[in-house]
Amino acid sequence: MTTPILDVHQLRTWYPVRRGLLGRGAAWLRAVDDVTFTVMRGETLAIVGESGCGKSTLGRTILRFVEPTEGNVWLDGHRITEMSRVELRRLRRHMQVVFQDPASSLSPRMRVRDIIAEPLVNFGLAGDRAAVDARVADLLCQVGLPRSAAERYPHEFSGGQRQRIAIARALAPEPDLIICDEAVSALDTSSKAQIVNLLSDLQQRLGLALLFISHDLAVVEHIADRVAVMYLGKIVEIGERAALFEQPAHPYTRALLSAVLDPSPARRHARIMLRGEVPSPIDPPSGCRFRTRCPYAFDRCAAEEPELRERPNGQSAACHLDALPALS
Ligand SMILES: Nc1ncnc2c1ncn2[C@@H]1O[C@H](COP(=O)(O)OP(=O)(O)OP(=O)(O)O)[C@@H](O)[C@H]1O
Ligand SMILES: [Mg+2]
Questions:
Q1: Which tens digit of pLDDT belongs to each residue from 160-169?
Q2: Which residues, by Cβ under 5 Å, contact ligand 2, an ion?
């Protein structure tokens, strides 16, 4: 059996928060609450869910930009959650990140050449100047930018081009895994499609694994091998893209999909509306967290938290129902 490149086990990230007008009384905001999944080499796992469900916190905890409250993360068998800062810095080479907003993640005063060369220098992978220049030119080519881009500054490029620069920088240390946090969300439709295609190509060519965090289901359907759906800090459904999109097993997945514009004919009937607001992650509902908005909730849902269970289609869903009611 092969080791997964990323193994996340019972991960919790709770933020300490104050509540009440006078800020008395501490409480925990359960941003990520008992999350377990793996990503295999060369695979793309998408993490989807509404704003505030904990996607970015999950990504940031895996990178250890945020410390986990509980649980473990392994990258290629190395336990990230136990590492010292020094060990972590060395390991970061194998796990890179691309954020939503390249304007804030690319230093405006650095030339593109130096931006892309920075990880090479930091990880001790740089040779002499000529070797670095050659590597930068190669990386620019891989992301579809001209060699001449090296001498320019980030503000001279469009949003889509800047995201190509961020991707070139992420590729520089030859990582095994790239975490993309809403990497295409700020782009216009045509740049979005181009960057998604670029990521798919690179992934196939280089055997990269992607953890693709996005609230955009149309993009996810295009790029993901598997999909994990998060609601209030938990994964409520995880499985192969096709199974999950064609036959969601969790009422929340069904609702999310039904909200996507222009669904395929096979899914067009599957319209259900979510009622109410997302509850606070400081005080989540008892039992199933989705029950307050679920059209199919019954007594057991308030009393007992559903575990992720495997379904006939292969995906796993955390719902007490064995099958969702047919839609009329
Ligand atoms: N540093 C922090 N301190 C306290 N609470 C935080 C912090 N960062 C995020 N949160 C809270 O944690 C929860 C999850 O936030 P997170 O940013 O991970 O969600 P998200 O799924 O990435 O949302 P979006 O789709 O808007 O990017 C939210 O309730 C958010 O308000
Ligand atoms: Mg986010």
A1: 999 999 999 9
A2: 55-56
